[in-house]
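Raw record, unedited: Tannase/feruloyl esterase family alpha/beta hydrolase
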Amino acid sequence: MRRRLLTVLAAGVPLAAAVYLPTASAEPRNSASMPLNCDTVSVKAPAGTTVESVTALRQEGGTIQGTGVLQGTVTDVPAFCEVTVTLTHPGDSDHAKVRTWLPVSGWNGRFQGLGGAAYLAGDNNVGLATAVKDGYAATTTDAGVGDALDTSWALNSKGKVNTALLKNFASRSQHEAAVVGKEVVDGVYGKRASYSYFTGCSTGGRQGYMEAQRYPTDYDGILADAPAINWDEFEVATLWPQVVMNNEKTYPAPCEFKAFTDAAVKACDSLDGVKDGLVNDASRCDFDPRRLIGTKVVCNGKELTVTAADAAVVRKIWDGPRTPSGRKLWSGVPIGANLAALAGVSDPDANGNVKGAPFQVPADWVRLWVAKDPSLDVSEITYSRFTRLFEQSEAEYDKVIGTDDPDLSAFLKSGGKLLTWHGQADQYIPTQGTVQYREQVEREMGGSKRVDDFYRLFLAPNTDHCGLNGLDGSADGLAALTAWVEHGKAPKTLPATLINADGQTVTRDLCSYPSVSRYKGHGDTTAASSFRCVSPSRH
């Protein structure tokens, strides 16, 4: 079991990035010490809930350790007041904890809500500690569920979906956390926050979009990155690589997958006008994997030859899920992303045979919420059954956790701002799902220019899942968001540090979608100043 968990975590390392670590460089408006009431805090229950308990403790800070499988460490955290409010929804037998950390001194007057990762509804202390260190009062909720890979809450004792906890995880607990957290800030400081922000990546990104769609007045600004929107669709779609390998009876080795990815990046590198180790627009890369048939690849000291069957598997994975009749269901793994993340295989057995090793997050979604059968062997899913499972997930869960309502008119009316970056080499959440949603919003709300007034999307080349949180580069989205919310400075570009295909650090100004980056024709290819943003029609 431990080996299995380690395998899953190794495949899911980028999930750790979803314990979001924004560090706004904007100057705090008010860093003066404030009187702190960390002894008794009264909290009014949000609508539809009952407050079960409230505790308030002064913590001395120092080094904070992240809990659960995601771990993490934050040092030099100042003293803070920790207020924990436990809520329940009468009749649902749930117990959702809302935790708020408030700096004892140096509060910047801002409030920050924090999202989760995978099946973790909220923060594991790392984001809270980082926020407090940056002067924020910060709130998160566990929604009454478990850790990032804990799905023990999915089904009740009768084998039915636990609809109350799913509702908590999908939407209502984040809203209740915002209500409770703001009230705690007021009670502790004797003053309401001047501005409120939400930050999250992956599951946290989806939660940010849910806030904008369903609770548009909760936050002034939302930073929602690599968002797990279209959950009911992409979560099933990310099991597709396993379905392909199992049905084709072909399991390319990780180094073979890497050979396909490297060849595609090399072939499509110059689309932005220069070879710089970055595929600026992965959706335009049409590299045919059949070009590698017959190529020799050395894997763990053993020479392998790429076969037509290997190329066919890669082609299907890049193309994405289709019905047996050929109808497109969802986007595939982006060209340039790590194919082995979702197309994992087991270690060879005594006879040298391997089998598929699915990523736990989509496998559990299909087993528990869709099939409602914990014993389902996902390796036995045929193409026909995959289509049925995909369509069943859409039918049952789109309105619950799809988070893809393009009508953001209430969020616009409230004055809110939504900022998102998404890695174009995201191996877990296809980038095109986010692009597709942005285009749906444009159609719903009057075009790109109008949507740019409150919602901007930035795509990051060669960046994996939540990679700009320091795993695959960096970008200070929270600083850009606060400048937009508080000073009206809409970000035309998002300065970022990226890692190219050669492992070299480069700077780029990510362009606001739909603009794309183009080399000026001269200058250092590792410097952002050598590139400019142009419209796609000129690219």
